[in-house]
Amino acid sequence: MADRLIMNGQNKAHSYVSLQTDHRTKHEKTPSGRKPRKPFNGIHWRAPAIMVAGLLAGIAFALGHHFFYRRFEGQAVKSESQQRWITRGGTAFAFLVKMSLAIATSTAYIQQVWKRLGERAVRVEGVDAMFVGLRDLSAFVNLKLWLGNPMLLALALITWYVSSWTGQTSSEN
Question: Which terminal CB of the chain, N or C, has fewer other CB atoms within 10 Å?
Fold first, then answer.
């Protein structure tokens, strides 16, 4: 099934965008000549797989971080070089946790954006705000849009929060 954007309205300030589904039969080919993909219950398998894999990887890296530092707990450091390598290992684990969770939440966010666009028409500036919500804090100026979409708001805030974590460890303070 192919989707297309339909612009409604003459004035840009009052233009709306809605997502309409192209109703082709399962044997018809797309304009590119390929058969349309068959989604599972309307959802392609890749996005949920990326979200679950990101979450599981984040949990695994967090546990790895915990057990990595636990291994060295209570031991005397033999050299400054060893201390640096332990700190680097911990920082690498922390970065991988952050990256994995950000991938999971940002994928969920984009899926929620497309779901929202498929449900009803949205003003063009609302569509812009939704698509830059993970990159630009000024997208949150449109309070009506975000308060009307609490799941989008929650996912955006979680992604911003996870992305704001730094790689600084206690030994660097």
Answer: C
Phi, psi dihedrals of residue 21, rounded to the nearest 5°? -90, 135
Measure Cα distances from 13 to 19, 54, 125, 138, 147 in Å: 19, 38, 8, 18, 20
Going through the chain in order, the beta strands assigned E by DSSP cover 3-8, 16-21, 122-123
Position 1 scores a pLDDT of 41
CA distances to 5, 44, 66, 147, 148 from 19, in Å: 5, 17, 45, 21, 18
Q: What is the pTM of this model?
A: 0.71
DSSP code of 119?
H
Over range 137-154, report the average pLDDT.
90
**Residues sharing a CB contact under 8 Å with residue 86, sequence separation 6 or more, in sequence order:** 69, 72, 77
Q: Which of 135, 133, 164 is nearest to 151 (CA)?
A: 133
Q: Which residue, among 98, 104, 99, has the nearest Cα to 55 in the 3D structure?
A: 104
Residue 10 pLDDT greater than 50, yes or no: no
